[in-house]
Write a structure and sequence with these properties.
mainly alpha; 0% strand
């Protein structure tokens, strides 16, 4: 999904969407949120090995 959003954003810029276009802004926000999610999930999978404390729970 992140790859799709990256490609979509590049295509929209290439075809001439202006930086303040609402659709381009939404795609950029979605891309940034997906990137943040994938990074967070990656670090969750590493657990305490990357400087984070283990979460309490099952």
């Amino acid at each position: 999904m992140l790859g799709y959003l990256n490609r979509l954003h590049r295509r929209m810029e290439k075809v001439g969407f202006l930086p303040d276009d609402p659709a381009l802004t939404l795609v950029a926000k979605a891309r940034d949120a997906m990137h943040e999610l994938t990074v967070d999930l990656h670090y969750e999978s590493c657990r305490h090995q990357v400087g984070r404390r283990d979460r309490k729970g099952p």
